[in-house]
Amino acid sequence: MEDLFGHHISYLRVSVTDRCNERCRYCMPEEEQAWFPKDETMTYEEMARVVRVGATLGIKRIRVTGGEPLTRPGIADFCGVLTQTPGIESVGISTNGTLLAKTEGGLTLAEKLVRAGVRTANISLDSLDRAVYQRTTSRDLLPRVLEGIDAAIQAGFDSIRLNCVLMKNQTERELPALVDYAAQKNALLRFIELMPVSTQEVLREDNFLPVATAKKLVEQTTGPLIEEPDFKTNGPAVYHRVSSTGQRIGFIGAMTNLHFCETCNKLRLTSDGKLRPCLGSYLEFDLRAVLRAGCSDAELAAFFQNVVARKPKEHDFRHNYQPNRRMIAIGG
């Protein structure tokens, strides 16, 4: 599939739940908790059908997200269905890491995911300081996250990526420790700018930390970072290499990188069945209603193509964007 601006759409992010065991202040503050009713949540069978039809149209990569996807029972089996779908080349998962070390039937959840064919794990790690982590997430779960990262390494994912959301007056002092930790774990570290998905407050001057500032601060510890434009993962990160060690570090600047949307190749399926062509747009289309009305695969394919045709050239985050869904209700 190709949109009106020449983007080849090959990547679908599938949110399996809006539920989460943390309350990150930039995603779902404690006071804003409100879950989708269960009958409004897509079944695994419905999601698998969407992926199957999407694959016939050129979708090749899937990332399973939430909420926290590992809170939904049967997640490893569902991922196994996706990895066996004809045309799907790669399935990854995005998680806060707190449940990866959980044991079920003698296997950690990380091991079950790898056995199901999941190749990559993106793990949120905003702080290595337990008190700061608790303040950010409203949960004292950092030890479980670190256990989860170790479990992911032991399980044998092809790639483990540690995602740190940049927060002013917090992340600056943590940068050396995060860089060192990622190097020790042989994990790909990415720094992500705050985006006004759930709340505009993240863009206040006392909250927002640009990736350019973070990069300069990292270089104070590592020495010069050399941009590697040819090194790509599935998303918009711009990667740099530490010249002295070869360690790669990614920077995701949705707000300050004016070329951020130029290589976008993705759609998002929310857990309540809305197909969204862009994270930073109000546009969403009710796929669940079409499915439950008994659509054929051909009609589902036409729905996909219509959404792709509506994909905007770029996000609206820089244009006084007012959130209409919490991040947790879209899919991280």
Structure, described:
There is one protein chain. The protein has 332 residues and is of the alpha/beta class. The chain has a single domain, classed as TIM Barrel (Alpha-Beta Barrel), CATH 3.20.20. It contains 9 helices and 14 strands. The protein has helices at 44-56, 75-83, 109-115, 130-137, 142-155, 175-185, 211-222, 287-292, 297-309, and strands at residues 11-15, 61-65, 90-95, 103-104, 107-108, 120-124, 159-165, 188-192, 225-227, 238-242, 248-252, 266-269, 274-276, 285-286. A 12-stranded mixed β-sheet has the order 9-10-11-8-7-6-3-2-1-12-13-14. Helix 2 runs parallel beside helix 3 and helix 3 runs parallel beside helix 5. The radius of gyration is 19 Å and the shape is globular. The two termini are 23 Å apart. The mean pLDDT is 90.
List the helices and strands and how they pair.
Layout: E1 11-15, H1 44-56, E2 61-65, H2 75-83, E3 90-95, E4 103-104, E5 107-108, H3 109-115, E6 120-124, H4 130-137, H5 142-155, E7 159-165, H6 175-185, E8 188-192, H7 211-222, E9 225-227, E10 238-242, E11 248-252, E12 266-269, E13 274-276, E14 285-286, H8 287-292, H9 297-309
Parallel strand pairs: 1-2, 1-12, 2-3, 3-6, 6-7, 7-8, 8-11
Antiparallel strand pairs: 4-5, 9-10, 10-11, 12-13, 13-14
Helix pairs in contact: 1-9, 2-3, 3-5
Highlighted features:
332 residues, alpha/beta, TIM Barrel, twelve-stranded mixed β-sheet, two-stranded antiparallel ribbon, globular
Quick overview:
With 332 residues, this protein is α/β, with parallel strands linked by helices. It has helices at 44-56, 75-83, 109-115, 130-137, 142-155, 175-185, 211-222, 287-292, 297-309, and strands spanning 11-15, 61-65, 90-95, 103-104, 107-108, 120-124, 159-165, 188-192, 225-227, 238-242, 248-252, 266-269, 274-276, 285-286.
